[in-house]
Amino acid sequence: MSLTCKETARLLSEGLDRDLPPERQALLRAHLAICRGCDSLRERMTFLRRAMRRAAERDDGEKP
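Now predict its structure.
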């Protein structure tokens, strides 16, 4: 079984919020290895997630 790009995008999003089962992780890695578009989406999602965390940390540091 292989994933579609739509399924991959959904799993990428789910994977940011919780750990995916090992079989889903394997399917996701396989799709990302062959699909530049989805791998780019993964990179953008990871970048945005990190940026949001850093912004939240800065905001927390400014409060008395």
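Residues 8 and 28 are 6 Å apart (CA to CA).
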